[in-house]
Fold this sequence. Notes:
Elements lengths: L2 H27 L6 H11 L15 H8 L6 H25 L8 H6 L2 H6 L6 H16 L3 H8 L8 H14 L8 H7 L5 H14 L4 H4 L19 H4 L1 H4 L5 H14 L3 H20 L15 H23 L3 H22 L5 H14 L6 E4 L2 H7 L13 H9 L5 E6 L2 H6 L3 H5 L4 E10 L15 E9 L10 E6 L8
Helix pairs in contact: 1-4, 2-3, 2-20, 4-7, 4-17, 7-8, 8-9, 9-16, 15-17, 19-20
Amino acid sequence: MPExxxxxxxxxILWLVFFSIAGILTITLYKDxxxxxxxxxxxxxxxxxxxxxxxxxxxxxxxxxxxxxxxxQLGYQIARLSTLIICLLxxxxxxxxxxxxxxxKSARAIPFLxxxxxxxxxxxxxxxxxxxxxxxxxxxxxxxSGRLLLASFIASxxxxxxxxxxxxxxxxxxxxxLDRKSQAGLPSxxxxxxxxxxxxxxxxxAAMIITRDPLWIAHNWPPDWQALGKANGTGPIWWYLAMxxxxxxxxxxxxxxxxxxxxxxERKFLAGLSIFIILLCLHSLMFWQGWFGSxxxxxxxxxxxxxxxxxxxxxxxxxxDKLTRHWQTLVPFFSGTLFSLSLVFCIFYIDxxxxxxxxxxxxEMTAWLKNHDIRFKRLITSQAYMRIALDRDPLENxxxxxxxxxxxxxIAGAAPGTLIFWDSDTGVKWYRLKADxxxxxxxxxxxxxSYSIKGYLPWPDWKLFGxxxxxxxxxxxxxxxxxxxxxxxxxxxxxxxxxxx
Length: 501
């Protein structure tokens, strides 16, 4: 093996060690993800052995749930650590991809991957995008090695990880049909495209075996994923272009644009560019029209983060080449500054998410419940982490929707001994239920606590980002008899919650 190759391998390993330490610190400091999806994916994986239909869930996704089902038995933090491992593997595959493309200093693909704010943010959560990114990197590597059919076979599994897998399958269908290296005729190529349906066939077969319902996938389709539902609102057609600083990185945006132009002009890495452009257009259209519950999240583009990393690294290499001609001694300084400031931005970005801090309040309230030996027969919650903290069956929760009247009926009809663990943010925004509504449905409030939880870093109190997290948690019970414990109601804002509790 050439010495330069050995040096790049060593550099890549050092980068992975660095980001593994950063990831472990993130998982330790922030006990939950910034969105509810992380917790619910964990619950699906943890309880899938009791409820096998979770293994073929349309929302949960079969391959993702299957891979996480074992680490989820060891707890939420272990499942989050599994995502970090997947991200590290994605980093290695991205490095190998850049090496195959002949990029100089190819190990730098790893920081260009991890320093994407959206990637850094969810590298310690239980979300589907990192696994998709890992498989995507492997697929493109295999394709570039000339094994398009094998790449297409592996790409067929992507639909079992995320909905974008359907569109990637279509893209690879065109790759097969337009493959100039193939000596086969058009009929033979059409037959080869059938390999892209293997993943869907495996999913349907597993669903048929587990549920005995040949139309399980249609019957299990999430209600907010309707074609014209607009369940998560809409946004302008240029929304994701405006989100590029959070997808690519604010300091990496210029290298990304330079790299994109360079690769397009040189007609290199066209497979990656095609996938990125098509998914950008599709997601822009879906959020603009509100199709299939598209929510406009930057994290959707973590799916193609290896492609983004290659493009950004290419642009930085072009910039470095020009810089070397005049100020070669400044090249290490500029590279170090770029990576250092990008890391600082990512750290501030994750710390600025107020919702990640709810876990500290939930843990404090959970400890109170256990210390007071509050016994209950059923648990209804407004957040996933509440169920995680108490390790409760997700199916015992009420089947809430955004319809206020139906939600009131659900909690009013619950049996005596039901405990409701509620918050003033998600519970109100998602389910339209406030504490007074629950109290009026026949429940006794055991405790109400308000929290002001600051981040680890100094933040101004902006309206949408940064500043303290103001959250109120409520615990109600539907009594069989008058509870002995007196309600402990404290409506005043509590001093900053100490995280060591």
